[in-house]
Design goal:
This protein is α/β, with parallel strands linked by helices. The chain has helices at 3-9, 14-21, 39-51, 70-83, 97-112, 150-153, 174-183, 234-244, 249-256, 270-278, 326-340, 353-362, 380-383, 393-405, 414-422, 438-444, 451-458, 489-494; strands at 58-64, 89-94, 122-123, 127-129, 138-141, 161-167, 190-197, 220-224, 265-266, 289-294, 303-309, 319-321, 344-348, 368-370, 424-427, 433-435. The N and C termini lie far apart (116 Å).
């Protein structure tokens, strides 16, 4: 049997295609130590096989944890679909163009170069097609746009095969789903619509494919736990479970492949908060002292100076002020620095905070201006939060504070605990942790105060060098040693 005949023979069996199209177990290849797909990948391939041939669309939705091999399976489906039926058409999209280029299409390139039929097709940066029939036999990579849905509306290929794949589908807008759904209506046509993603959102079309969703009856669904896949990073998974808690929504999404229990997720573990409040305050003499300064923006809000020396955020009481001008608050900052010999002053420079920064610097005192909305450059390796992705500086500082909380000490103050418990987050379209804004939280609970915790997390804005005298309650004595004495007997006699 020649190659063309074999490809035709597996037209209705993507699993047989995958097992025969790549060099599984062949020495000196990338698959030398691999025997074939993971069980969950087999299940999806079998679902396609068992649904063919069919007069209605095969619709498959897979929600999974992180790193289970979604892009790998997408690559197999693309190569199977285009190489085993003449004049196949398809579109592959994802949550972002970056995801498409660097993950989905890059993975396709890896498998294309191991594919036994690669000489039959051309692979470009945006498409795979049959050279002599590139207008009718092709699958395109298309970045979605809510203002331009033509690529999804034009998915017609009567009497042939259509493949539509959505990667990281939880973040793809409903309008794209609706446009694609309206187009996939050709009779006597093989239509395979497969969607994959981390279940990051509790609303939208991806969520509604699953149990109790409006469209659940149209979809064959699967949930994949990262712990069940052979090649996932189990050490990283255990780190997430320890950091966030086994029942946290973060772990539900990133590990279990389950949708969050609520739309917005709690950021701090209740256990970590309580244990930090009960933990005895300890620090080393050389631990640097950081002071975080949150500047009040609203009438009832307070400006707060928060002191943290190493693992100790308890011993030096925070200072709260109301009704101070930027000049007056700057004076308070200078006084605190003089009393405690801080190694770093981190001031929220947003809004009126910029005036405090200017006035502190006017008094020839160095300080860091921190913009909560800036790109995250928090020193995560210092605080134990390395490897986590944050949408902005505010989220990043909170992430460092959360990692620190597991071994640090904070005041046993019920109001302070309430502030920690109130912090919520979502995962944005780039799969980054993004805190719900302070303004939005205050709209939901006008009595909520977050000044203390914002000042606290500011102490994580920058890494500081060790300093043996940081945290002293008294000014250092100025010690000057000199061999020159203008009033020595020798000098007096000489005069």
């Amino acid at each position: 049997m020649n190659l063309a005949e074999w490809l035709g023979s597996v037209s209705d069996d993507p699993y047989a295609f995958v097992m025969g199209a790549f060099p599984w177990g062949v020495a000196e290849t990338r698959l030398a130590d691999a025997l074939g797909p993971e069980q969950w990948q087999k299940d999806i391939l079998f679902a396609v096989r068992d649904g063919l041939p069919v007069d209605q669309a095969i619709q498959l939705a897979t929600a999974s944890g992180h790193g289970v091999g979604k892009s790998c399976l997408v690559a197999w489906l693309i190569l199977w679909a285009i190489s085993t039926m003449t004049d196949t058409k398809g579109v592959v999209t994802a949550n972002t163009e970056t995801q498409l280029k660097t993950k989905t299409w890059a993975e396709l390139g890896k498998w294309f170069h191991m594919f036994i039929g690669r000489e039959l097709f051309n692979l470009t940066a945006t498409a795979i097609f049959k050279p002599e029939r590139e207008r009718t036999w092709r699958i395109d990579m298309v970045a979605w746009s809510e203002r331009n849905t033509e690529a999804f509306a034009g998915l017609h290929n009567k009497d042939k095969r259509i493949l539509l794949i959505m990667d990281e589908a939880s973040a793809i807008p409903d309008i794209i789903w609706e446009t694609a759904e309206g187009a996939l209506t050709d009779a006597n046509t093989q239509i395979i619509w497969a969607v994959f993603g981390n279940p990051t959102r509790n609303q939208g079309r991806f969520k509604e494919c699953f149990v109790n969703g409006r469209f659940a009856s149209f979809w064959t669904t699967k949930q994949v736990d990262s712990r069940t896949v052979s090649f996932t990073n189990k050490a990283q998974i255990n780190k997430w479970i320890t950091a966030y808690g086994p029942d946290s929504d973060f772990v539900r999404i990133r590990v279990y492949g389950m949708f969050p229990s609520v739309g917005e997720m709690e950021f701090f573990s209740e256990t970590d908060i309580v244990e930090a409040q009960l933990r005895e305050a300890q620090s080393q003499p050389s631990d640097p002292l950081a002071i975080g300064i949150d500047v009040a923006r609203y009438g009832k809000n307070s400006s707060v100076l928060y002191f943290r020396k190493g693992r100790d955020a308890t011993s030096i009481p925070r200072q709260r002020f109301q009704g101070l001008s930027t000049v007056q608050l700057a004076d308070k900052v200078v006084e605190a620095n003089f009393a405690y010999h801080a190694d770093g002053l981190m001031i929220d420079g947003g809004g009126v905070g910029g005036g405090v920064v200017d006035n502190v610097r006017h008094q020839h005192l160095f300080c860091y201006e921190v913009q909560f909305g800036a790109k995250d450059d928090t020193p995560h390796t210092v605080f134990g939060s390395a490897g986590e992705k944050y949408a902005n500086k505010r989220s990043g500082m909170y992430g460092a504070a959360r990692a620190w909380l597991k071994t640090g000490s904070i005041p046993a103050d019920p109001d302070f605990k309430k502030q920690f418990s109130a912090i919520r987050y979502i995962l944005n379209k780039r799969d980054e942790i993004q805190l719900i804004s302070k303004e939005d939280m205050l709209k939901l609970d006008p009595d909520l105060e977050l000044d203390d915790i914002d000042a606290f997390v500011l102490t994580f804005a920058h890494a500081l060098a060790s300093h043996a005298e940081a945290g002293s309650e008294f000014p250092r004595k100025l010690l000057v040693e000199s061999e020159y004495d203008p009033f020595s007997r020798e000098r007096m006699e000489a005069a």
